[in-house]
Design a protein that fits this description.
Length: about 240
Amino acid sequence: MKARSWLAATVLGALLSPAALQAEGLEGRFSIAFQGGTQSELAGDLLKSTSGTLIDKPVTLESKRYRDVYAPDLRLQGLLGYGISERVEIIARGTYYKADGTALEVGTLNDNPVYAFFDPYGEYEEAGVEVGLRFYIAAAGRLKSYIAPIAGARFLSETYINLEVPDAGSAIRNVPFHEKSTVPVFGLDLGFTFDLGEHFFVGVDTGLRYQVAPTQADGLAGFPEIDDSDGKWSSPVVASIGVRF
């Protein structure tokens, strides 16, 4: 028991010692961080309102937002940074995000509800790269807060839509909705890091992203407007753990 108490006191003393708590600057140092969190869709229509004829019957479809279809899900990121001055750090980041879509009512066909869901398997999936410049508001202490303009690209898989009318026993499946696309993304990061010692840090990162709309597939004859999706606004929120050297 006494040995364990001495060991605990020694570890605590080491963690609280000035050497362990000293804050290091950014200039000339590399940072590597793993980030994990989620993303919320803020604005933008995924499906546009339109009307026409489907299976030889009149149909009216309503606009639906990205946030109506996709709930927040897992976002993973890896970051590499380099301090070019005491208050400025250039960063490069790889990103991955996947969200499960839900079936939802999108209109009527002969007064019967029409439902839509998006494939593959109701999921939205993307990978991306981003570069940015972090301007640190406070960088001298252990708590370092920053703002960072961001630009990059996202690589989106193709998307299909299924339309079903359960009351009429009718369905149209696997209609191309969006083509496989590479789209620009722009945004702003807000966040902070907290130094745990000379090399290790944790942090929180959030902000805004605007992603240009993917290429429409025009796969549903008679409804060319349905896949004229807007670009979307979203907000990632991630926690970080990393090392500086």
